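Risk register update: the risk that structure generation would not scale has been downgraded. Supporting records follow, first protein first.
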Amino acid sequence: MRSAIFSLGLLGVLASTALPACSFDPHPQDGVMPCSVGCPSGYVCAADDTCWTPAEMAPSTLPPSGPMVVGRGHHTATLLQSGSVLIAGGTTTIGTISDAELYDPTTGTFLRTGSMTTARANHTATLLNGGLVLITGGRGQNNAEQSAELYDPATGTFTPTGSMAWVRESHTATLLPSGQVLVVTGTGECDAQLYDPNIGTFSPAGSLDDCRGMQTATLLANGKVLIAGGITKNGTFLETKLRGPTTFPQRSNCIIRPPVSLLSPAR
């Protein structure tokens, strides 16, 4: 499967030939000249309606990206501390796979690394503070998984860690300031769990009023986690807003319950 590196400069060059001219605003920001009707002499208008000099529009010098070793979808891609990217699991024409590979941005190539202990797709992969990657849940070859495992970049191997209380896929896993990982819901689930990398186990972390999957989870600057949207078992799309000091309402009543320490900045 082919992969690609995207560059703003390169995209701007391609787009500038098709866009109408735009006007010059004499207040540049970060070397980009804003425009709305026409750019000044020596500038061209990019796709985001800003004027750039030819030097700024030059194509990227990054090396072209080679193809993955195994074409796949529904996988994870995790940036490691080394700068490489771990590609793990997913589905192919033959089904769910356990294969993993590493992308090296300095050479633009993918190389095989160790395989996961369990084939999975629609799982999560979270970089922990110590450099390991936590893999949780997902859809196995036959059913959703409750197992979890750790990838060690130093050895290129995956090893099992504690299992979650329930099977789950299309869930979220968010690294907290404490170094723990908050795992929330998933297709058909309502609960949240907390993974402690120091002891390798999951513990209960409350639940949501609405069971959901395919939601997002965003760590905020104050240490709280915003759980947004998702889809219920009956296909309803949820609208979620953060409101109040310790609640995560969906509509007006979706709350991640105690322990409250999960919803507050780490001390």
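Supporting record for the second protein:
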Amino acid sequence: MFLIQLALILLVTPLVSLSLKSNNAVGKVSIVTGASRGIGKGICSELCRAGYKVYITGTTLEGPLSLQQTKKECESQGFPGSVVPFLCDHRDDAQVSSLFSHVALESGRLDVLVNNAFQLPPSFADEGSSALFGSFWDKPMDVWDSLHNVGLRSHYAATREAVPLMIETRAKHGGTPLVAMISSFGGVSYTFNVAYGVGKAGVDRMAKDMAVELKPEGIATASFWPGVVMTENMRKVVENGEWEKNVGIPIEGAER
């Protein structure tokens, strides 16, 4: 859908030379976390179009907005790549470790990790998009915990597991493995709520600091702002008027 259209805000290392749209990706391996819908689904599509074998994670295997649905839609396009669904709750470190062990055993390499997984607060199920808005002192602590456990901590945990395999990949195959963090302009501009902004600022800083440690290993690290993307959940926020009321950023240019 649009990975190469993402607005790059932190090119934190000069090593980012990987073209995700090139034909030399056939045979390469990527992981996209949180890819049963939204931005992750779009990124999976573009990587598959480029020729990557794409492992995708999520907590729903079958049905609408599921990993199998993403696989079906991507592969029906006749792209040269392939999609491998892997059930993984990114709140569980053991499941995350199992993911990377599986990829290492089955594919023996990892060229791209896209940290995209994100969890909405539990109250979103009942309250809808209104769960994202309002004064922080009126919100339960699970808003903070949800937005940071999956969306910040999960990025750290996945990258920690990915790096040894990326180092091995570079040693055997050359090239520049890439860790991509999906972030937001919410890290520098108030968007949704306090916890959301703090989480996105943390993602940006994490990418920058990881780049310092990963540069000697030849691994590129970058944080991306997709901008306003008309995902399934974003559509609900727009349709009920919450976006215009609480954010005020024009929605006309949203990526669809």
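The chain has one domain: 3-246. On this basis the risk owner (M.S.) recommends closing the item.
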